[in-house]
Design goal:
- By secondary structure, the chain is of the alpha+beta class.
- The chain folds into 4 domains: about 1-105, no CATH class; about 110-170, no CATH class; about 180-340, no CATH class; about 340-414, no CATH class.
- About 35% of the residues lie in helices and about 20% in strands.
- It has 11 helices and 19 strands.
- A 5-stranded mixed β-sheet has the order 13-12-11-14-17, with helices on both faces.
- Helix 2 packs antiparallel against helix 4 (about 70-85).
- The protein is globular and about 80 Å long.
- The chain binds zinc ion.
- Zinc ion (ZN) binds near residues 349, 365, 367 and 368.
């Protein structure tokens, strides 16, 4: 451990005034300020490396060809990855150990400060983006920059079918909308995400799971078999590798497109959507290894779950929730997440617990006589709990709803 620390001074002394200013126009950090390099036993690599960029360029002359802000951004990305690994988020979870990214795995770089003046027309009248240290690069707008918006930053992305630049734009005169629509029984729906049906809504719509990936899987596996027979890095190997990357890209694009259409479809008749607050990462996971008396591995259900994991990743619920959140913001509508505990077991009408295994698809309640599809029941229950939770009562989950209704019943009986 000590070897890591030996060349790192305890403090870094600032050599010039910082660029960020406070409300009075004075720089927040000044020349001569001391910044610690080690806090709570952790090296602040970001501070150390940013200060050492000059030296890095001397040690690795090829870095001189890269713009300083691009390099600074790379350091910040590494710092974010390290932070996510070390510091737990609000759910107490940390992300995985950072791994080294070689040049073939580095697919994007960012310019944190671009402006409208970086977009120019060249002699042939084509739109070009002027990237510092690279020069004029002709490009095509996939849509025009809206009137009044300023370009703030840009990220160059290498995709399977070419290079893209993603521009961040801003217009400070556009007000930030925050929708505070009060959900009612009529303007809201509950949705249940699942594998048998991608979505079941509380108004009884069953939406099928898209099988883009399964359909293309056959083609993909054929290409992969062919790839395995080729010599690595040979010409035909590269051609096949590219074909596979393009197929993956096609599947991802089809999925995203489908999810956007679905999100707009769901909001076409409603103002508020209630959905389960799912922890997708918990669903996609390997089963714990089961060991026998002699230390041999016993069947633990992983092969069955691999099929399930594949379907889960295919369905990409995490991405769908992100799409929903974006569409909600765009349309000025609202989504409310509901605690998923008990939503697949209890009865939506009387809250009676009807235990079912994953394979039982039907909900039949012995108490109130409800007979319906289990996922449809979940969607109705999600809407019910969501509505109760927004009506100022102390209900946040199925459990609290059951407790409240039992307390009411015991009050009525005597
Ligand atoms: Zn019931």
């Amino acid at each position: 451990m000590d070897r890591i620390y030996q060349n790192i001074p305890e403090f870094r002394v600032q050599t010039r005034d910082g660029r960020k200013k406070d409300n009075n126009g004075n720089p927040i950090t000044k020349k001569g300020d001391k910044h610690p390099n080690i806090v709570n036993g952790y090296v602040l690599w970001e501070t150390v490396q940013l200060a050492n960029l000059g030296q890095t360029k001397q040690l690795f002359p090829e870095y001189k060809s890269m713009h300083s802000q691009v390099l600074q951004d790379v350091i910040q990305r590494v710092q974010t990855t390290m932070d996510n690994f070390i510091k737990p988020d609000k759910n107490g979870k940390t992300s995985g150990r950072p791994k080294f990214k070689g040049k073939h795995y580095y697919n994007s770089f960012s310019y944190p400060q671009l402006s409208n003046t970086n977009i120019v027309k060249n002699a042939n009248g084509r739109y070009c983006i002027n990237l510092p240290k690279i020069g004029l690069v002709p490009f095509v707008f996939n849509r025009p920059i809206p009137e009044g918006f300023k370009v703030k930053a840009g990220t160059v992305i290498r995709a399977a079918d070419g290079l893209y630049i993603s521009l961040t734009i801003e217009d400070q005169t556009v007000p930030l909308r925050r929708a505070e629509i009060q959900p009612t029984e009529d303007n809201s729906i509950g949705i249940d995400l699942g594998l048998l049906h991608y979505i079941v809504t509380s108004d009884g719509e069953f939406i099928e799971v898209p099988r883009f990936f399964r359909k293309s899987e056959h083609r993909l596996s054929k290409l992969q078999v062919r790839l395995a027979k080729k010599q690595k890095h040979s010409k035909t190997w590269k051609v096949l590798k590219r074909k596979i990357a393009k197929l993956h890209q096609l599947i991802a694009r089809q999925r995203l497109d489908w999810q956007f259409k679905l999100a707009y479809h769901l909001f076409s008749d409603y103002q508020v959507i209630f959905l389960e607050d799912l922890q997708i990462a918990n669903l996609v996971r390997r089963c714990r290894a089961k060991l026998g008396d002699n230390g041999q591995f016993l069947p633990n259900g992983q092969s069955a779950k691999s099929g399930l994991n594949k379907s889960l990743q295919d369905a990409a619920f995490g991405q769908f929730v992100q799409v929903l959140e974006y569409v909600v913001w765009k349309l000025g509508k609202r989504i409310i997440k509901v605690d998923p505990k008990g939503t697949s077991q209890n009865c939506w009408e009387c809250l009676n617990k009807v235990s079912k295994s994953l394979s039982e698809r039907w909900h039949s309640c012995s108490r109130c006589g409800q007979e319906l599809d289990r996922d449809y029941n979940s969607a109705l229950l999600i809407q019910k709990i969501g509505l109760l939770s927004t009506q100022g009562e102390d209900i946040t989950s199925v459990k609290t709803a059951v407790r409240v209704s039992q307390a009411e019943e015991s009050r009525v009986v005597p």
